[in-house]
Design brief:
single chain; alpha/beta; Rossmann fold; 3 domains; 20 helices; elongated
């Protein structure tokens, strides 16, 4: 079977279309052609030509993004368009055809042949796009079972194809770009907690990316962790980087012969792989949407990057059997942004592992690292990005410190706004009254939080706010913005205080109210702890999640869903 982005006369961009036609017609006795980016089906001089499906009409920044969108379209469409009967080898023509052929060969468990007509270096390309294409070509040459230089008629590489002898069977495969040790925000913590508890109930696997020096797969009892190196391919920006490691995720799952009963994907960063694997393996998909581009951008979806992210968020929710969200606010956002039916979306909050959290206690004298004995600690933890409102907290610090000198603002975390925030604090003359700690380990973070007098969450946009749960677990009063999930977790006047977002004066007044009333603050903290114990334990949350898994599996069994890739009974 040939896989190509061009074929004369059906789809022609350059000379490749004619070269591929010549190659195909030489072997027409047993050949099929999968034509990328084509939605039809026809016969060419007796050769069956099947389109890989028309990609969505969304703007892209470069040919690499275009090629990856075409790739993921093909992987989702091929199982319904292409009968693989009789296919003994999958041949990919040039790098765009090679990417799809490489992954389809893994799914069909047949050798992959990579056919080269010209290399990027010969074509005279330059710049980021050219270097990215060169890296894809080099990767495909390494991975191919056979490499054929068609114009020279030379076979430059052959090897016996190795196949995984044992299938990876599991009930659910979680697909997430965050998983320890690669952690960016609350998503990674949530996924780690979920799979830890699920693996105590059933065979569970995680498909994720690794960090430099930590890309090894792991097997821990009934938990399997599959990792890919996200820097295997050179890319041109964030979106093409995400597409590249998603393609590697698909390859890893197929090369390990993963056969989960369910897929569970987290956010758009794992959506392309999740959608592809759903159709390649005929496995029902569940999605968790932790945040949306629509929410982050306040509804302004304008740039190519935003439109692609929004597309993959919509596509993930469209393809999913059920969609989990972490709050009622997020439910409303997802329903509005993606026009989903109400009964498809389930509110399931994030949780906290109280036993693990309680095991972290501040050491004697540790408070001295953050504040003087007479200073009261106002604590923030989170990424230093616009949505987290750290700049609003610095403004509130200026207001509060103009009225009293016994407050110390401790700002934990890191992010692209850190230099600006440090400059803002210096320009306001706040000096040593604002301490930027940088990123803290979970252990150090939990210990620091337990030293705080007040925990502040001044977000502009916050679908849930897991740091609020952590503060409440530490029995600390919370001052939070009245946005998103924060207003559902914090009970006004009982476990903390809510203030309008982007209002530093109101934020400063709420912090001062708690500092002036330590007994009220202590009671709020204790009520917050009881609320967490009652509603936000991971064990309870994961048990309900698995109940939903069971319902989906029952519906799937009765659905009659099949593909052309399924074995004939």
């Amino acid at each position: 079977m040939h896989v190509t982005p061009e074929l004369e006369p059906i789809k022609r961009v350059g000379e490749l279309a004619g070269w591929v036609r010549e190659t195909v017609l030489k072997e027409k006795g047993s050949s099929k052609v999968l034509l990328l980016g084509y939605g039809g089906r026809r016969t060419l001089d007796g050769v069956e030509v099947v389109g890989g499906g028309a990609p969505p009409r969304i703007p892209v920044s470069d040919v690499l993004e275009e090629a990856f969108i075409e790739l993921f379209t093909t992987l989702a469409e091929a199982p319904y368009r292409l009968n693989p009967e009789g296919v003994e080898v999958v041949e990919g023509h040039e790098w765009r055809g090679g990417l799809a052929a490489y992954l389809l060969a893994k799914r069909l468990e047949v050798p992959f042949r990579f056919s080269i007509y010209t290399r990027e270096e010969e074509r005279g390309g330059w710049g980021l796009v050219s270097e990215a294409v060169k890296s894809v070509e080099a990767f495909l040459e390494r991975e191919a079972d056979e490499v054929v230089e068609r114009r020279g008629g030379r076979v430059s590489k052959t090897r016996s194809a190795s196949r995984e002898s044992q299938r990876l069977e599991c009930e659910v495969l979680h697909i997430s770009w965050e998983y320890p040790p690669h952690m960016v925000g609350g998503l990674g913590r949530a996924v780690a907690s979920i799979v830890h508890r699920l693996s105590g109930m059933t065979q569970t696997a995680v498909l994720t990316i690794g960090l430099p020096g930590h890309v090894k797969d792991e097997e821990r009892g009934s938990l399997f962790v599959l990792r890919v190196d996200p820097f295997t391919l050179r890319t041109t920006g964030l979106v093409s980087w995400v597409y590249a490691f998603n393609a590697l995720m698909v390859a890893k799952a197929l090369s390990k012969a993963a056969r989960p009963r369910l897929l569970h994907a987290h956010d758009w960063l794992s959506a392309p792989a999740a959608v592809a694997l759903k159709h390649l393996l005929r496995v029902p998909l569940i999605a968790t949407i932790h945040a949306t581009e629509h929410g982050r951008s306040r509804g302004s979806i304008s740039t190519p990057m935003q439109q692609q992210i929004h597309y993959w968020e919509w596509r993930l929710t469209y393809e999913a059997w059920k969609v989990f969200v972490c709050s009622e606010s997020m439910r409303g956002e997802v329903l509005a942004a993606f026009a989903l039916p109400r009964d498809k979306v389930i509110v399931l909050p994030n949780g906290i592992d109280l036993e693990s959290f309680d095991a972290h206690s501040p050491a004697p004298g540790e408070r001295d690292r953050y504040a003087l004995p007479w200073e009261k600690i106002v604590f923030f933890a989170g990424r230093h990005v616009y949505d987290k409102g750290v700049d609003v907290l610095i403004e509130a610090a200026r207001v509060l410190l103009s009225r009293r000198g016994d407050a110390k603002f401790v700002v934990a975390g890191d992010g692209p706004m850190r230099m600006h925030l440090e400059w803002l604090a210096r320009s306001y003359g706040l000096g040593d009254k604002v301490l930027f700690t940088g990123r803290l380990s979970d252990d150090a973070l939990y210990r620091a939080m337990k030293l705080a007098d007040v925990v502040v969450v001044p977000s502009r946009y916050e679908p849930f706010g897991i740091v609020v749960l952590e503060a409440m677990a530490a029995a600390k009063p919370v001052v939070a913005s009245r946005v998103g999930g924060l207003s559902e977790i914090v009970v006004e006047g009982e476990t903390g205080l809510l203030v309008p977002p982007e209002d530093p004066v109101a934020l400063a007044s709420a912090i001062e109210q708690l500092l002036n009333n330590p007994e009220m603050a202590r009671e709020m903290g204790l009520r917050g702890r009881r609320r967490v114990e009652d509603l936000y334990r991971w064990g309870k949350i994961v048990r309900y999640m698995r109940h939903v898994y069971g319902r989906v599996l029952e519906e799937h069994a009765a659905s009659g869903w099949h593909t052309l890739f399924d074995p004939v009974p």
